[in-house]
Write a structure and sequence with these properties.
The chain has helices at 10-19, 21-34, 39-67, 71-116, 122-129, 133-145, 183-199; strands spanning 153-155, 160-162, 208-211, 218-221, 227-228, 235-236. The chain has 240 residues and is mostly helical. The protein folds into 2 domains: 1-200, no CATH class; 203-240, no CATH class. Strands 1-2 form a two-stranded antiparallel ribbon. Strand 1 (153-155) and strand 2 (160-162) form a beta hairpin. The longest helix has 46 residues, at 71-116. The radius of gyration is 22 Å and the shape is elongated. Keywords: Membrane, Transmembrane, Transmembrane helix.
């Protein structure tokens, strides 16, 4: 098993932005489309968009300085293009940073569930995290091949995380991903598990409207299930 890598190297995209702007845009769109199912690549894709805007701005600034005769014209044009191009770049940098933080927290939660709590069923992990089983499978596969979840393997047929010779509790290294699962994550896991155990065979709760803290858009979220904002990718969650 190998780590899924970017389908198009970022250097080619940035070069396309300089040599012929439409080519860079097309390559960027192709990369986004081919990475839609790889959570660990999305944060870098958002950051790459920011890099592309900055690279394009630097190219425009170079052309403006060559073509303009007066300093005042250069400054005015650089300010205008700085606003038009710099603001979107900053937005994508922020979205990318939030996405990276979200994935780090999610990896910590996966590790806590599979080791400290001994949960090995993909469907159960998906239920507790609010992620789709497909995303959980892909995320844990990435954790295994990248060394974030050592001495583990996936059984694709049984949809189980097999931890080798390690026991579920009392690990010597409780979380190598970058720190222990946060108190909020553990509380969230326990609350969701308790809520679902108490609900039994009751019907699924009705979705509720929630405002995204990242972009301000409104989305419908089912209580107890985590989902991504369709506009900026920020994580949305309402406790059950």
């Amino acid at each position: 098993m190998t780590i899924d890598k970017p389908k198009i190297h970022g250097a080619f995209i940035l070069l396309g932005m300089v040599l012929f702007f439409p080519v860079g845009i097309v390559l960027l769109l192709v990369r986004f489309v081919t990475h839609y199912k790889y959570n660990h690549l999305r944060a870098n894709d958002y950051m790459l968009v920011g890099h592309a805007f900055i690279t394009f701005y630097a190219f425009i600034a170079f052309i403006v300085m060559l073509a303009s005769e007066t300093t005042s014209d250069v400054v005015a044009l650089l300010i205008v293009f700085g606003i038009l191009i710099g603001v979107p770049a900053i937005i994508f940098y922020i979205v990318g940073a939030r996405r990276k933080k979200k994935m780090a927290n999610l990896y910590n939660l996966y590790y806590h569930l599979t080791t400290a709590q001994g949960i090995d069923a993909i469907d159960r992990i998906a239920e507790l995290t609010g992620e789709k089983p497909r995303n959980v499978t892909q995320d844990i596969s990435y954790m295994i091949v990248s060394g974030r979840l050592t001495d583990a393997r996936l059984d694709p047929t049984a949809q189980l995380v097999i931890m080798g010779n390690r026991t579920a509790k009392g690990q010597e290294n409780p979380n190598p991903v970058g720190g222990p699962a946060t108190r909020e994550q553990i509380i969230m896991t326990d609350q969701v598990a308790a809520a679902r155990a108490g609900a039994g065979a009751s019907s699924q709760p009705a979705p509720k409207m929630v405002t995204c803290s990242g972009c301000g858009s409104s989305s419908k979220v089912i209580p107890g299930q985590r989902q991504d904002c369709e506009f900026c990718g920020n994580s949305l969650f309402i406790p059950s």
